[in-house]
Design brief:
156 residues, five-stranded mixed β-sheet, 39% helix, 5 helices, single chain
Amino acid sequence: MRNPGDSEQDRHWMFQALALAQRGAEAGEVPVGAVLVRDGECLGAAYNRPISEQDPSAHAEMLALREACRTLGNYRLPGTRLYSTLEPCPMCAGALIHARVECLVYGARDEKWGACGSILDIPACEALNHRLQVRGGVLAGEAAQLLQEFFKARRG
């Protein structure tokens, strides 16, 4: 489904994140994928792995951040953009701000855990010293469908 406001760059990287989310689903993980990019180069990419890693912090966004930090040799990631198939939770939103990520682009809203506008809006908190730009809804239909199919299969 094409949203007229989606840039080709945003769609390109979100398709990459969706492919990762699909790999996560095939591994039995909740299908969320994330890709961290700067200047057209992927610095980190991952899918959810809390089950396989037995680590509640092994969300796709956190793993992509960790990989990018190792790639750059720095815990700060200015000028970067994170693509996530699902609106980040409070933990991940906080990590994006701590890492000084410039922009978050996500697919589907998360009405249970979303912390970038759905149930919380951590990036809008004026008390924080970094502003994270947020743009949601890029390939939202595709991201939501992947999640719905995954949970339907698990219940079925």
